[in-house]
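Section handout 9: paired folding examples.
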Amino acid sequence: MSGHHRHANTNDGLVSSQMLIKSVAEILKRVHLDREHDIPYLAGYSTDRSKIYIDRHLQKTYQDKNGHHHEVDRFLILHEATEKAMIDTWNLHYQHAHQIALRAEEAAVRAAGLEWREYDNFMQQWIKRADSEKINRVPANLDLTPYLDENDTELIKVMQRAMVP
């Protein structure tokens, strides 16, 4: 017998929607979600990886062209968990980690049977709104790496003044 592992009728290299959905569920079990704060860029994570923050103003669902409502938190949680892991484990620059996380988020949206363009358009509208929102409740343990890597010094000053325990 050769040293290769044998799998009956499986190919681990194939994209599996069901496996991706289960993977997202596993991440959701491991993090605490906080929707009580103002989070520029819509979502973020604590420095110790224990919390994923989603901006308190972001709608929890979006409506597709057929009038169906879909929850968005799980996709943002996957994005943020992936991004933080890439930064912490591989010391990637925020923009590189963000691009990988965005691809994971897109794959999860598609695996759930949703259209990426509709979902992304919804998110882009909220990102614009979040930028104009008054920032007055930022968690003290929010990881500022994305904002620092983007050299968004004015935003960082506003966020630091708004930090609460």
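Moving on to protein 2 of 2.
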Amino acid sequence: MVSCLSTVLADSPWYHGHMNYTLMHKKLPVLELEIAEDIAAILAVGEVFAPEHIPVGIEMDGERPVRSSLNRWWMGRAIPASRSGLRDALQLMDVSSTGLLLLKCFGLSLSDQYWVDSHAKPLDWDKINFFENEFSEDVGNALFGRPLQSGEVNLISPDNTSDGWLRKKWVIDKGRRLLVKGGSEPAYQEPLNEVLASSILQRLGVPHAQYELAWDGDRPLSVCEDFIDTSTELVSAWHVYKTAKKSNNHSDYTHYLRCCEELGISGVRDGLDRMIALDYLIVNSDRHFNNFGVIREAESLVWLGPAPIFDSGTSMWHNQFSYRINPLMDAPSKPFNTKHSAQVRHITNFDWLDFSALQGIEDEYAALLEQSPFIDDARRDVLCSALVQRRAMLEAIAARRR
């Protein structure tokens, strides 16, 4: 049973109690957990019921997960400490930590089907999952710095398990689960870049999350619909990457492909070709292992292939002064290489890339930038010219490689 550490922990000066939970995968019990009430950390792992449904990438000891690895996965579901406006939001909600927010919503997410069910008060998946049930916008509003309604704050929200450093919140509109995301100072350019990336991928026929532009006063926001539903889930590239030990002879790119191959996930190399090409074109500086990945069916565990491309806002020199924008200069990249000039070499096939489909994309981008009061004419012109040059540079690379 999960009470194996209770006696020792009860005597610890920092420990103030525990609760027993079952880690669930939709309606399937996966394993038993002991979680500290005050810090929301996993203290012990109990009986394992369905080892094949343990989250991807958890370090295993036979058919049992290593507690420290499982705890990193669990705490990794919480809002990151780097989230813009987080400290003020926690004060506004009178919550001491993001871990407690995670526990308040039982770890429920709009990205996968995992959650924890309390032994003291068992819950019904059909009545609580965020894909089919209403949820509070109090947490999201607090993260956007908006005053909360008087009365008790409702903390049952998928915003408790949202990743990333920019302000964001989930809303329901006509039954659709929409993610609303802001930008960062000084240009608040990320939402405009998300829409640009959507347009590029739409023109090229590449699967992607479709972003639209919205406004919070004079500040732009990006809005996209959840591409996960009640039967699927997103597994981050990082968790796939952790399914096998990396050989010293393999690059990060080769290791990731090897992990996907061993798991039986098809279409990954083609998906990476498209993602790397986009990131080179728009100079994406933050394509880390947690903002791309693969999709699988939650119940059957069948892999469906690469996730649609999403989260491309940290691009087009979003945090650079206009005079420092130079499309000809090599730019920082992630996740496989530190420079785009090196990372673009991983592309194995350019036949899918119809450059004629990108004619006039700079005019579309200009129309987007013109809507923002934070982007002056000079910055707009520099960005659009840079986009044209990046397209020409990528076309030259493709011509040499074809």
